[in-house]
Design brief:
Blueprint (H helix, E strand, L loop, with lengths): L5 E7 L6 E8 L5 E2 L5 E2 L6 E9 L13 H18 L10 E2 L13 H6 L6 E2 L6 H16 L10 E3 L4 H6 L5 E2 L2 E5 L6 H12 L10
Parallel strand pairs: 5-8, 6-7
Antiparallel strand pairs: 1-2, 2-5, 3-4, 9-10
Length: about 210
């Protein structure tokens, strides 16, 4: 990942249900030289999902690990330290968008965001403006479509590292809502999709709108 690219993370919280952390590299338009010597041209705004941590029970579908927020934060720090040590990334990871529910709190009880910040992991609020959910799914599809176009591309695309097994297994098969075909069935295992949608919406200024 070029040192000039932005590297950040997105987050969808879950305890009894899975949580999802995605790490992203956003291109500034730099051409990347791959280990085999081949050059990969990129478009400014290209999004690469470079790593993930899906907190799910391997024996029970759509079941979380019931980890405390502080434990998740420490796990994130450990994984980011390994990314730096391995050379996958060359700069510290910036805070990215998370489900706004992590800032909810009760009197005398710290929020999930506060617990994670106490361990050094901070987040930005995701876009929950009216219509943002459906627009997020639309933008995800458009980014994926634009990423498949041959070079030279004009619009940014969405690319997933093949090491992101959970995303590749679960997101492409997310079902539409029977009652609203512009949305995803919220009873499905949509945590990775939601977390990706938060990141896509954070970059919406670089994404041209398209039709479903």
């Amino acid at each position: 990942i070029p040192s000039t690219w932005r590297v950040d993370r997105s987050f969808d919280w879950g305890s009894s249900r899975p949580f999802s952390v995605g790490w992203w590299a956003e291109s500034d338009g730099t051409t990347v030289k791959l280990p085999n010597g081949r050059e990969l041209p990129t478009v400014r705004g290209d999004l690469f999902r470079i790593a993930e941590w899906y907190g799910s029970d391997p024996k029970e579908p759509n079941t979380g690990l019931r980890m405390a927020a502080s434990q998740v934060a420490l796990g994130i720090k450990e994984r980011e330290a390994k990314m730096l040590a391995s050379g996958l990334i060359k700069r510290l990871v910036s805070p990215g968008p998370a489900d706004n529910a992590i800032w909810d709190s009760e009197p005398g009880v710290p929020s999930i965001a506060a617990d994670m910040q106490a361990k050094g992991i901070m987040w930005e609020r995701s876009d929950k403006s009216p219509g943002s959910r459906k627009q997020g799914w639309l933008q995800m599809r458009k980014l994926l479509e634009d990423g498949k176009k041959p070079a030279p591309r004009e619009a940014p695309g969405l690319f997933i590292f093949r090491t992101c097994h959970h995303w590749l297994d679960l997101v492409p098969v997310l079902p539409r809502d029977d009652h609203d075909l512009d949305d995803v069935d919220t009873d499905a295992e949509d945590h990775l999709g939601d977390e990706t949608r938060y990141r896509v919406r954070a970059a919406r200024k670089n994404v041209r709108q398209g039709n479903m």
